[in-house]
Design brief:
With 814 residues, the chain is an alpha+beta fold. The protein is 27% helix and 25% strand. It has a 10-stranded antiparallel β-sheet with strand order 1-2-9-10-11-12-19-16-15-14, with helices on one face. Strands 6, 7, 8, 13, 17 and 18 form a 6-stranded antiparallel β-sheet that branches. Bound molecules: beta-D-glucopyranose and 1-deoxynojirimycin.
């Protein structure tokens, strides 16, 4: 069953009924001000950091789940009937409801009793504010006297404190209302220099800023007393729960349309000029007033919206493909690239499943996300790498995550994840391959943000390699530490106390448990760094990395091979994990993917054997599960992985992040049909047809699809913020379509499904637009290349040295 459809031309997903199985959401903003918006206008906004600078409130695990947001109410002043044009929160039956999620904007439209309201929400580029542009049309044959109410609930900035510290917070809320603008200034009187504002383009009939005055006692958002009465209370919040609500009266002639603009924003004042007049307790509004006035003008808003459209066109133009398959095209050209940009902005911090208060920017997460967005925003990728590297530690280890506002490492979430540092090498090498900007290696970057500790970025990478080599276990494999990529395989945790964090509890000294996954990752990263070192490192260094990689490769084959697949790990008593010897969890997906990506077993048939085992034991029609058999009980020595009921999350769920590793491995093994088949199994657009089962948005990847041991096999969860976005983008664009940046240029090495006659693509690469045509002329994967008609040796397009900015690339695959 479909609950909407793609509008490929407009690059929008159109949701045609409001009661989607889960909130189907979108993101607003792509620089400093962000919002999450659902298909019923639910969600919240924040400045830079969803925990520390939350503008509007979100209530966790609410019923209904999607409650609280950017709400409007329309009241028919003739009869007193009222409704929400975004369906929530009043949930009246609307006609012609549609929600169009576009690239950083959302438009929700509906009609009720002849009145049509279409509201577009977006954040203008360069601004720290959001605009709601509401267009109200009277489709009746008679004039309509209407009241329009807006409603938001302010968060008292620190979202965790806001949700938990009521004894204080019920007394701190403060606002000012001046010339119809509502200023939320809680804590401004003391250490904050920032405030929020909520403005409306029309003269007000009234306003409310105290929640209870607006809603009325014992009422929720579905029946605010002010709306029911048709009159605001003009309330001034002192403590309790500050809200923002404007009341506008409109009389519309038959057929008349009026636009009402609301602006919600964040503003900072200079510390020494925060009050006006100086010495008072009144917010200095001189700095913000012109900004507000400008954004209440329809012409400014329209121009800002066009600017946003242009911006996205520019980003997506970096790679556009035309393949025989519409699902592939729309994911690659629009939605997968878009999701990669969202993970760039959010990492795993704020979604409808990530609370925005638990996690910031993950070290391994953001380095992997980079693979999916570096070609669109190389400058910001560079900045991200330097921010991440500044949370690297002198030991070569890393903070597992940092807080976006402060850019400081955050220890609350735990450390000693022994895979973390290696991802930095992959991030940096992806950046250089894309941009050819070797200067990044000379950037001086501190450790743990400590001034004076700076070394060139290159030395950070050297320390990442050292970190692994200094921490080898009894089999010569890397010690796992807290965990590797799989946060839930906690081999040093041994927690038997309810509520203990698997992320921070350690009951073992960590000298025994080893990870085959890190071994594979090490081989991959050391080879990448060797290629970099060929040009940048001191003499002999590249060779040392290659030697270290081959030693680790040999150890992996010797100690990490189980006969038919790669083992996963060794636990604290030296017992294998992910082996035929195990009772449960005999085979895991991660080492099969990463080892083959690192080239381990590719020459000797083991890669194929491993992939055949994946197919036999792990593949399902909904994707490839993480391991089998699922853990049926809690294993003290394995940790969180066995805490999940079978089939969910890391315990044999289809943990989508890992699926593209197998797609890439299949491509490396030369099996285009298998790679593409796996790609299609989890492609969100292809799963649109089973929306009823899948339940999450059909335009973005979810972290997990329930595995075959689960009661709800095929049901997706935790959409949006997942490494799945970047890795699927890499798998389809770089390995299946085969358009792959390398240090030397742009490689064209497709491994296509057999039935495809070819495809075409436009790829901007280091200032050159490559118009690529790929034609299949035989059954294999060998490539013959011409560039502007000139046959090339090999399959790499080098950047022309003669100033050409457009080249025609033709590849014959046979
Ligand atoms: C989840 C993991 C996640 C970890 C982060 C666990 O509960 O299952 O997917 O990486 O939390 O802290
Ligand atoms: C989600 C986390 O963000 C990521 O870092 C981790 O690798 C996976 N879960 C697997 O546990």
């Amino acid at each position: 069953m479909r609950l909407g459809h793609f509008d490929d031309q407009a690059r929008e997903y159109v949701i045609t009924r409001p009661d989607t199985p889960l909130p189907w959401v979108n993101y607003l903003g792509s620089e400093a001000y962000f919002g999450i918006i659902s298909n019923t206008a639910g969600g919240y906004s924040f400045y830079r950091d969803a925990r520390l600078r939350r503008l509007t409130r979100h209530r966790y695990n609410n019923a209904p789940l999607d409650n609280g947001g950017r709400y409007l109410y329309v009241r028919d002043d003739a009869g007193g009937e009222y409704w929400s044009p975004t369906w929530q929160p009043t949930r009246r039956s609307l006609e012609n409801y549609s929600c169009r999620h576009g690239l950083n904007y959302t438009t929700i439209q509906s009609t009720y009793k002849g009145v049509t309201v279409r509201t577009r929400y977006f954040v203008p580029l360069g601004e720290t504010l959001e605009v709601w542009q509401a267009e109200i049309t009277n489709g009746r044959t008679q004039a309509a006297s209407l009241s329009l109410f807006s409603a938001i609930e302010f968060c008292l900035w620190d979202a965790l404190d806001d949700a938990t510290n009521y004894q204080r917070n019920y007394s701190t809320g403060q606002v000012e209302i001046v010339e119809g603008v509502i200023y939320h200034k809680t804590e401004y009187r003391e250490r904050r220099d920032h405030f929020a504002y909520f403005a409306c383009s029309e003269p007000l009939a009234g306003y409310d800023t105290q929640r209870e005055a607006f809603l009325g006692p014992y009422r929720g958002w579905s029946e605010p007393a002010a709306v029911e009465r048709g009159e605001s209370g003009n309330s001034l919040a002192h403590g309790w729960q500050p809200v923002g609500s404007h009341h506008v009266r409109l009389t519309l002639a038959p057929g008349e349309t009026r636009t009402v603009i609301f602006v919600l924003g964040y503003h900072e004042n200079p510390k020494d000029d925060k009050f006006d007049p100086p010495g008072s307790q009144t917010v200095n509004k001189r700095t913000v007033k012109p900004l507000i006035a400008r954004h209440l003008q329809p012409a400014t808003v329209e121009a800002a919206f066009q600017g946003l459209r242009e911006y996205w066109r520019g980003l997506l133009d970096n790679l556009q493909v035309q393949t025989p398959d519409p699902h592939t095209d729309r994911m690659v050209n629009v939605w997968n690239a878009y999701q990669c940009m969202i993970t760039f902005n959010m990492s795993r911090s704020a979604s409808y499943f990530e609370s925005g208060i638990g996690r910031g920017m993950g070290f391994r997460d953001s380095n992997q996300d980079l693979l999916g967005f570096v070609h669109m925003i190389p400058d910001r990728a560079r900045e991200r790498i330097l921010d991440l590297a500044a949370t690297h530690l002198e030991t070569g280890g890393a903070y597992h995550q940092y807080q976006p506002l402060t850019k400081r490492g955050n220890n609350d979430i735990g450390g000693n994840f022994n895979d973390d540092p290696l991802w930095l090498i992959l991030g940096v090498s992806a950046y250089i391959k894309e941009t050819g900007d070797w200067s990044i290696l000379d950037e001086r970057v501190p450790y743990d943000n400590q001034p004076g500790s700076e070394t060139p970025l290159y030395e950070h990478l050297q320390r990442c390699v050292r970190y692994t080599l200094d921490r080898l276990g009894p089999h010569g494999l890397p010690l796992i530490g807290r965990a590797d990529w799989n946060d839930c395989l906690n081999l040093n945790c041994f927690s038997d106390t309810p509520g203990q964090s698997f992320q921070t509890t350690t009951n073992k000294d960590g000298k025994v448990a080893e990870s085959v996954f890190i071994a594979g990752l090490f081989v991959l990263a050391a080879k990448e760094l060797a290629d970099v070192a060929d040009r940048r490192g001191p003499a002999g260094e590249a060779r040392r990395y290659r030697d270290a990689a081959s030693r680790m490769e040999a150890t992996t084959l010797q100690q990490g091979w189980d006969g038919d697949w790669f083992r996963r790990a060794y636990d604290d008593s030296g017992q294998p994990v992910g082996s035929k010897e195990c009772e449960e969890g005999k085979i895991f997906i991660e080492p099969q993917g990463i080892c083959i990506m690192a080239g381990i077993g590719v020459g000797d048939g083991r890669a194929l054997k491993s992939l055949d085992s994946v197919k036999e034991h792990l593949a399902t029609p909904h994707g490839i599960v993480l391991q089998q058999p699922a853990y049926s009980r809690y294993y003290l020595q394995l940790g969180e992985i066995s805490s999940y009921p079978p089939g969910y999350k890391e315990n044999a769920g289809i943990f989508c992040h890992t699926n593209p590793w197998i797609m890439i491995a299949e491509a490396i093994a030369g099996r285009g049909d298998a790679a593409y088949d796996y790609y299609m199994r989890i492609n969100p657009s292809a799963r649109e047809a089973v929306s009823e089962l899948h339940r999450c948005e059909p335009y973005v990847y979810a972290q997990m699809i329930a595995g075959r041991d689960a009661a709800t096999h095929g049901e997706a969860k935790n959409s949006w913020l997942t490494g799945t976005a970047a890795w699927n983008y890499v798998a389809i664009t770089q390995w299946i379509l085969g358009i792959r940046p390398t240090l030397d240029g742009l490689q064209i090495a497709p491994v296509l499904p057999g039935a495809w006659p070819g495809f075409s693509a436009t790829r901007r690469f280091r200032g050159v637009t490559c118009h690529i045509t790929v034609e299949r002329t035989g059954p294999g994967n060998s490539v013959e290349l011409t560039v502007d008609g000139v046959p090339q040796t090999g399959d790499v397009v080098s950047v022309p040295g003669d100033g050409r900015t457009d080249v025609k690339v033709r590849a014959r695959v046979s």
